[in-house]
Input
Amino acid sequence: MRSLRILILATLVLVISTFIGLVSEDLFVFGHAKFVGSNIENGKVYRVSELPDRLELTFEGELTPRSHVYVFTVSGTLLVDKGDVKIEKEHGHGHGHGKSKLSVALDKEKLTAGLYQVRWIAVDAEHNAFVEGGFVFAVRD
Output
């Protein structure tokens, strides 16, 4: 039941953000958390054995526990992450707030050939504002 709720929530976030994104690309950039990169590349095709055990997203700034990430099939019918979202704070050298890693374990048993989507919401700890985004990757046999 929990998986179904998460799937419905992720699908709603995708649909709403896609609709609003058509109106304005900058609409969701409220806070200071800034997406820097990921250990899975947008648009890249992987074999399951090439994928890391955890998807890691890096952000500038500190994130709150309200931040979340989902990995699911593009059709939106199957979550392929384990739901164990973690946030790790990395302190920078000198000025600034450092970086944060938002991660979730991948359920590699569920990953088959196909297209997958990553969707994330990062809540900035300093201003309690959010930024959201996503990307796709593919798995081949």
